Amino acid sequence: MVSPAPRVGVLALQGDFREHLAVLRELGAEAVPVRRPDELVSVSGLVIPGGESTVMDKLSRAFGLREPLLDAIAAGLPVYGTCAGLIMLADRVLDATPGQQTLGGLDVTVRRNAFGSQLDSFETDLKMPVLGDPPVHAVFIRAPVVEALGEKAAALGSLDDGRVVAVEQGNLLGTSFHPEVTGDLRFHDHFLSKVRAA
Ligand SMILES: NC(=O)CC[C@H](N)C(=O)O
Q1: pTM, to two decimals
Q2: Gene3D superfamilies, alphabetically (predicted)?
Q3: Alpha carbon of 173 to those of 23, 168, 169: distances in Å?
Q4: Are 195 and 106 in contact (CB under 8 A)?
Q5: What is the ipTM of this complex?
Q6: For 72-104, how does the pLDDT look when each residue is reduced to its tens digit (9 = 90+)?
Q7: CA distances from 172 to 56, 78, 161 (A)
Q8: Set 19, 20, 168, 180: catalytic member
Q9: What's the 134 CA to ligand 1 centre distance in angstroms?
C-alpha cells in the first residue's frame, strides 16, 4: 500500500517560502503555506524558510502564530529551519536586534550575519555524513553560524574552519544555508523522513 503524502507546511509570513513549497512538492509531499494558527494545526511538519528573522519574529506575533508555534515545537512537530529559520529555532542568538525573540527548540547559540558585510554570500561544498555522498553544495546568504552547541543538539556539518552550519535535535533540523535553491533535495528528503516517522 502506498502511504499518503505527508501534509507539510511552510511558514509563509516572509522570505523564500515558495522555493521550499516547490521542493517539498517535488518530493511528493502535500505542501501548504502556513500563515494562520488553523493552518498550522493541519500539518504534520513545518519548514521555516530563509528571510529576515527580525521580521519573521514580529510577523509571527502580529499573526497570532507565536504561541501556536511554541506549542507545536514543544509537542514534537518536526520543524526544519533554513538560515533565518535556523535563527528562529535557536535557543540563543548573538547579534540579535533589541527585543528580537526566537521560538527556540534547538539547544544552540547562533550568531546572525556571521560572515559580516564583506562576505554577504558565498557557496561551498560541505561533507554531510548524514546524507552520504556527494558533498552538499551549500549557498550562504547573510547567513548565521552555530557558535555553540548545547548538549542536546548534534552537528551535522561544518565549514573547513570548524564552524557548525547544520544541526539536528530530535525532530528539529537547522541549516545556515539554503538547500531549496540548489536542486539538491536531500535535506528536505531527510526532513520528510522525520515527518513520516513522527
Ligand atoms: N538568508 C537569510 O535567511 C538571512 C538571515 C538574516 N540575516 C537574519 O538575520 O534573519
Answers
A1: 0.96
A2: 3.40.50.880
A3: 16, 4, 7
A4: no
A5: 0.95
A6: 999 999 999 999 999 999 999 999 999 999 999
A7: 18, 6, 24
A8: 180
A9: 26
